[in-house]
Amino acid sequence: MVQQDAAADLRAAITEGRTALGIELGSTRIKACLIGPDHAPVATGSHDWENQLVDGRWTYSLDAVWAGLQEAYADLVADVEQRYGVRPTTFGAMGVSAMMHGYLAFDAADELLVPFRTWRNTSTGPAAAELTELFGYNIPLRWSVAHLYQAILDDEPHVPDVAHLTTLAGYVHWRLTGRKVLGVGDASGVFPVDPATKQYDARMLAKLDELVAARRPGLAVAELLPEVLVAGQEAGRLTPEGATLLDPSGTLQAGVPLCPPEGDAGTGMVATNSVAPRTGNISAGTSIFAMVVLERPLARVHHELDLVTTPAGDLVAMVHCNNGASELGAWAEMFGEFARALGGPATADDVFGALFRAALEGETDGGGLLAYNYLAGEPITGLDAGRPLVVRTPGSRLTLANFMRTQIYGAFGTLALGMRVLAEEGVAIDALFAHGGIFKTAGVAQRLLAAAVGAPVAVGETASEGGAWGIAVLAAYMRAATADGDPGLGTYLDERVFSGAALDVVEPDADDVAGFAAYLERYEAGLAVERAAVEAIPTGTNGADA
C-alpha cells in the first residue's frame, strides 16, 4: 500500500507540474533527468552523440544539438509514461547544462558565424598566453575569450560580424527562452569573473578593450558577452517556440520557469554537494576535472589550474584534463566484441564490471605498464595533440588485471599532476566527492582515484546521474528561492537535498598510494614517448591533428 501511495503521489506531482527537469549536453551523451518534490530522480532519458573533427577543429553541428535534445526528451517522456502511466505537459522548473567553454559566435541576425568550437580545441595558444600575461590570471586554451582573441589575432573574416558569444548551455537556453544569459559558473569559463561582484571582472575587461582596440577599433568585448546570473535567480520562461523545439509533438506547454544555464563543472558541484570551502568534486566523463572550493585566492598563477566559480559565485580552483574515460570505453568495447566472438552474451555493463573488477587484482604499480588516454591535446602536460598509447618493457607483467589497473590509472594520471599543484599551494580539502559513469562499478575507480589524489573519495547514490540531476536540483532551488526566499545554495543542498543521503567513502589504501606514486613517476618520464608519438604519427582523421 505504501508503494502504491508513493506512485500515486508521484503521478500527481507529474501531472500538476511539481517536478523539475534537468537536461545536460555532455561530450558523448545528452541526458534528461526528471526529479520529484523530494529531489529524487523520477525518470531519465538520453541520446548518444559524438563530436566530429572538421577542418582540424572539434565540433558538433547545431542540427545535432536539437536532434539529440528532442530524442533525449522523448526518451524521458516515454520513461515517465512507462513508469507512471501519465505524460508530462509541464514542469515546476527546468534547467539546461552543457560542457563548458568553447566558442559559439553569432551575428546581429542571430546566425552562427563559424561552426561551434568546443572545449577540446587547443588552437588558441598564442591568445591564451598573451591574455594570461595581460591579466595576471590563467586563461586556459579552451575559454571563450581565448577563442575570440585568437580569431582576432588570426584576422578571421567573421570577427567584424560578431554580435554576441555564448556557450552551448547558453545557446540552448537562449533558444528555449529568448534570453541571452549564463549562470555565473558557466560565465566564469567565458571570461574571468570577480567573486566580489559575481560579474565579469571590470578591470580585466578594460584591459582587453585596450588590447583589442589596436586591431579592431570599436570592438567592445563586454557587449558581446551574455548577462551573468547566479543560482536562485529566474532566467526566463519557456516560450512557445522553445517548447516546440524541445517537444515537436506539441504536448509540452510554454511558461515553465528556467534557472540560469550552467556548465557541467557547476552541475557536478551541485550533484556532489561540494559548493562549500574545503570541499571538492571530481567529474569523470570524456574529460575529467576536479573542482575545489577555495578559502582564499591562490598565491600565484598556475597554467595547470583554472579559476572559476560555483553556481553561487564562490571562487573555485579547477584542474581540467581534456582526456578522461573515452579510451577506457574504447577498450571495453573491444573486449565486448571479443566476448561476443566467443559466443557469450556481453552487455556493456557486464563488460565494464568484469574489467573493472579485474583491475583490483592487478599489481599496485600496474606491473610496469603505462597507459596514456590522450585522444586530444592535454594542456596540463604541454601537449597540443594526443595519441592513445600502451607502453611496456620486456620485463613488464602483461596481464588483464595489470592492463586494466593501468588503464584506470591512466585516466587519472594528468589529474593527479594538477592536484599536486593544488597541494603545493597549501589548499586544504576535507572531502572529495566523485561522480560519473566510471564510478558505476562499485568500489573500483573510486578506490584507485583515492590512491591517485591521496584523499578520501565519496560516491553517492546519484553519482551516475551526474550533471543532468545537478541542473534539475538547481532548477528546483530556483523555484524554492523565488517562492520562499533564498536560503543560500549550500544550506539548500545540506538541508533539503542531501540530508540523510547515503555516501560510500573510501579512504586511500597505503599500498595503492605507493603503487600509484611509482606509476606516476613512470608516467611523467614516459610523456617523452607521447610527445614523440604526436610528432611521428599523423592522426589520419581528415588529415588533421586533434
Q: What's the structural blueprint in terms of helices and strands?
A:
Layout: H1 2-15, E1 20-25, E2 29-35, E3 41-48, E4 52-54, E5 57-59, H2 62-84, E6 93-98, E7 104-106, H3 125-135, H4 144-153, E8 164-166, H5 168-177, E9 181-183, H6 184-187, E10 193-194, E11 199-200, H7 202-213, E12 227-229, H8 240-246, E13 262-263, H9 264-271, E14 279-284, E15 288-293, E16 306-309, E17 315-321, H10 326-341, H11 348-359, E18 370-372, E19 389-391, H12 400-424, E20 431-435, H13 445-453, E21 457-460, H14 466-484, H15 489-497, E22 503-506, H16 510-536
Parallel strand pairs: 1-6, 6-13, 9-12, 14-20, 20-21
Antiparallel strand pairs: 1-2, 2-3, 4-5, 7-8, 10-11, 14-15, 15-17, 16-17, 18-19, 21-22
Helix pairs in contact: 3-4, 9-14, 10-11, 11-12, 12-13, 12-16, 13-16
Protein name: Carbohydrate kinase, FGGY
Domain Carbohydrate kinase FGGY N-terminal: 20-246
Pfam families: FGGY_C, FGGY_N
